[in-house]
Fold:
Amino acid sequence: MKHSLCSSVENKYMRLYFVSGSYLALGIGLGPMNLAIAAMLHEEHPGEKNIFLEKERCFTWHPGMLMENASMQTPFLKDLVTTRNPCSYFTFINFLKEHGNLDEFISLRNLFPTRLEFSQYLSWVATKLSKNISYSSEVTKILPIKKLGKIEELEVHLEDSLGKRKFLAKNVILGMGFKPNLPSGIEVDDKKIFHSSNFLRRITDNYPDLLKPYSFAVVGSGQSAAEIALYLMSNYKNSKITVLSRGFVFRGLDDNPIINLLYASDSGEKFYSMPEISKKNYLEHLTTSNFSAADSSTIMEIARLNYQRKHQQLPTINLIHFCHIISAFVKENHCEINIRNTVSDQSEHLKFDGVLLATGYDNKEPSIPILDELKDNFILDSDGKYMTDFNHRMIAKDNFLPGVYLPNHFHNIHGFTQGTIADLPFKAKKVVSHIMNLEHSCKR
Ligand SMILES: Cc1cc2nc3c(=O)[nH]c(=O)nc-3n(C[C@H](O)[C@H](O)[C@H](O)COP(=O)(O)OP(=O)(O)OC[C@H]3O[C@@H](n4cnc5c(N)ncnc54)[C@H](O)[C@@H]3O)c2cc1C
Structure:
């Protein structure tokens, strides 16, 4: 299944819009986080100068995992705006209404749309805001602009179809997502060993024969691993699928209504105010509310298909629990994996036609290269990492006046909703209100 999600919006408005002077708010990256911020600026502060720079050529949301039947893990009411302003133009409900789908959606009696439909909703919002978005614009670095010993503005450098350019900004909002987590010892190869972020394109390009008895290894045991396993079982009927995980494959997500409150709008604020020891305790005990676990309906479907395969005398899925991958690499025309069982301490050598890494994203964010030239201005924690305050603003030294916001990062500081779409309207409100308050009280 190939997706071409780019429409004609792209950069057609931008040539007209770029003007001289400084942007009050400049967003870097246009995923759901910055889209929620762009929507709030548009609705509540239409006169303020803002721009959002996205390196891709149009709006996309994890296209490598946009399988046709994959469902959202958050209800549609957690869209970009509803919990901030249910009357906003940019609600998912209004998107359904404008596309003539509201009645049919209601009759499904399902809070969880497909990811494909939610992605279409996000693209619809981006299209409405396209006057303030520049696609094919990759930010490469940010430099400080000093006046009389103080840093007052930032110079944001980017590369786009017009070449290298720079914009001035009083506040930048980093919404660049996370980098794929690639465990050490695994040699990624574009054709045979690749990360889930590239799954759909690479699998269709490199494994075109749906009837061939390919052998696939899926590494991981979270939602992406489950969705990839399910995709392979459904599309490659004769394939032999092995799922390898350092934990138990597959644990169900802890998503009961009490645990789900960890993802409520004000949960980030509550988490922020907890003592460090409580934060650590929460993060340790409740990881399966989001990570290293899969949705029970996906697991049920895997089990159902597996049972069906058994009756059809097709290969059934092989689950390898509690293993550590020592190495994985391509040799001649196949992939080799060396694993060690962490319970029995026994090693094993396996061979596959393809290795698919559902190993998640690096949410610890060890470095943000575009900030390298600003780094000396920030106050770092004892591990040398950036920190953000209550308003998601990076904590900086006194002579650093611009705002650098990182609203969707740092689980250790703001809790479980970070890196998700669970409370985007709330975070957007915090960031935008903070920028506006500082601007209008001139206490920057
Ligand atoms: C397959 C999948 C499904 C998910 N489903 C859910 C779900 O149902 N519910 C949920 O709560 N969470 C879900 N998540 C979690 C996910 O992280 C969030 O949904 C969301 O994408 C985070 O938004 P974001 O804007 O912070 O980052 P992203 O969506 O990652 O967007 C970052 C953007 O920044 C751009 N960018 C990066 N660097 C630069 C640069 N230097 N210059 C310009 N642009 C740049 C990227 O191209 C990208 O478009 C899912 C994640 C995955 C991988």
